[in-house]
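Hi C.,

You asked whether I'd gotten around to modeling the 305-residue construct. I have! Everything is below, sequence then structure, no commentary in between.
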Amino acid sequence: MTSSYTDSQKAAQKAFLFRTCPNIITAEEFATVLGKWVSGFGGKEMDEVNKMNQMSIYIGRNGQEPAERQDPPWSQFCASYLPKTVEMFIDPPPINNPAIPPGIVEDMILHNAYLSMLVAVQHVPYFLHYFRSTSPIAEPGKKLPSVIAERIISMAPKWDERMLNPKGDFSEPQYHETLADAVQLLGTLCTIFRKSKPLSSDIKSKLLPWMKKWGTRYRGTLLGTVCTRLQSIFRDPEFKLDVKGMRNILKNWDNCAYPGCRATADLKACARCRTVRYCSPEHQKEHWKKEGGAAHKLVCFKTIY
């Protein structure tokens, strides 16, 4: 896939991120940006535009770290704050700032901080655990695939026109990136819910022409790739199981989580996080304290679902 950024732009972005945020961002800091309805913390609430901008900086900052340093805050965030993040995306707060143009307000039904966070954590095992949970607190998650699909459909005519006729500002890459994020997340969710058919035939019939159009027009970009992939998922729900991201989510559930062990029989879940399973108590104990950033204790958190 082609990149829209040069090496010098990437270097400048990295320098800015480390200058702005010298330390890795914690789960609580992410939750604080998303607001009191997610975090439960008090304090002054950011408006939705500032939430989105700050979230972009925070996610970009942690993205500069190796995976073993990124995963602990992602995991802790999902264990405590994922349910509320899903709820806030489904039913976002009103935007009452008169300084924000109506067109931007309309765009933010999809282009917002909650989508950015959901995309950032979709590879974490807690994400799968939440959407498979039978707890009442996880029930809103069952609606998320339809909500995302309906919002893509509703924004598609306007955003397609803006992508075809850019104004020379930042709007074109914004639409590309947000659509790519939304379609990628929808593909992950359709695979998680593949046995329950999360999208109606009517929604699929309205969404598919856009996936075909963007998959062809933007071939070689992230947007083109995820649109083509979603078409494949619609044809064969097992398709994404062969994609690396989904394999990473499932690997420590379908197999023993101890590195190097491929056992699949008689697996028992970690009683605390319930995101990994082991073939024996010995492998669980060894994994808990394993050196080199791979210790399970670094990403093991009790969930609220």
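If it helps when you're writing up: The first strand starts at residue 268 and ends at 269.

Thanks,
B.
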